[in-house]
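Spend some time on the protein that follows and explain the fold to me:
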Amino acid sequence: MANILVVATSKGGTGKTTLGVSLAAYWRDSGKKIAILDTDPNQAMVRWASKGADGFRGISVLACSDEHSIIEKVGELGAENDLVIVDTAGFGNQAMIYAVAVADLVLVPVMADEASLLEAVKMKKVIDSASTLTRREIAFRTVLNRVKRMTTVVRHTERNLEQLGLRPASTRVGDRVVFQEASYHGGSPLNLSSNSVAGMEIRKLARELEPELFGA
């Protein structure tokens, strides 16, 4: 059975889809068999990954709008792949709860603002509740995403994430133009510009998450 990475937060605009497709392309290039399950009604991940670009060749991409089918679809994809990445909607719904319940790791993108921080706190409560219901610990990490530049606010948000027990990744992901270009063309930031800062950040984040997904 594959490992399951769920990218989730109930706040829209935090860059869940960008992180999901970028990490999928990185791990595919690393030799892993990857599947994407898009549970967002807007299907942004499916649209991005289905534009025919080489960045997603060999990655299984599936949309699932029926919240009651999510666990079944994760199981089907998991039987044939090394990793399933699940994208969720930018609002709290039952589909997100089901996805979190089957996750091996939940990645919570956080922007450097108070609203994102509060939503991260709420997201931890969802993960804790899912852990209680499933009687197993569901690991999670937060990641500062769409960072425009290092400011006092960014550092303050990072300190708050630490103090609140929200397990921030040491990697920060910037608000890079290459992500927008990749979305428009349907490519991977790593394929468009492998030596870019964006590519380096995605590689660093992926390697930071790997011990919790795949073991040491």
